[in-house]
Amino acid sequence: MASRLAVFLMTLSQAVLIGIVLARFPAHLSDPLWPAHAKAHLVSQIAALTGLACVSLLLLFMSFRAGSKWAWYGLFLSGLFIYGGYWIAAGVAEPAVPWRSAHSAFAALSAAYLLGMVLGWRHCFRRSA
Known about the structure:
By secondary structure, the protein is mostly helical. It has helices at residues 2-24, 36-64, 69-93, 101-125. α2 (36-64) packs antiparallel against α3 and α3 (69-93) packs antiparallel against α4.
């Protein structure tokens, strides 16, 4: 039961992330206030986040469900890069920016993904009898 909830939470987190990235991020490409260099970083971020989320979904529905330890580690690293990267960037690049709606969305996604990782731990690392 816990493994099903883990898969659900992480799948939900990654699916919503892909939706946000593909629906909201490209709007900045037409913003005349953004310099070309910033837009180049944005396109790179869209590709990286979407790619990592898709790899996470593949791991979830293939190896993680089978209980592979390496899949848990792969999902951990994907989550660390996606969600940890967001929070590091917010703290480093925008330390004086007040809390905004994007932070709330990423806080919820981060929490769902982390809870899924915690619930999935036992599924992948249970002791063999």
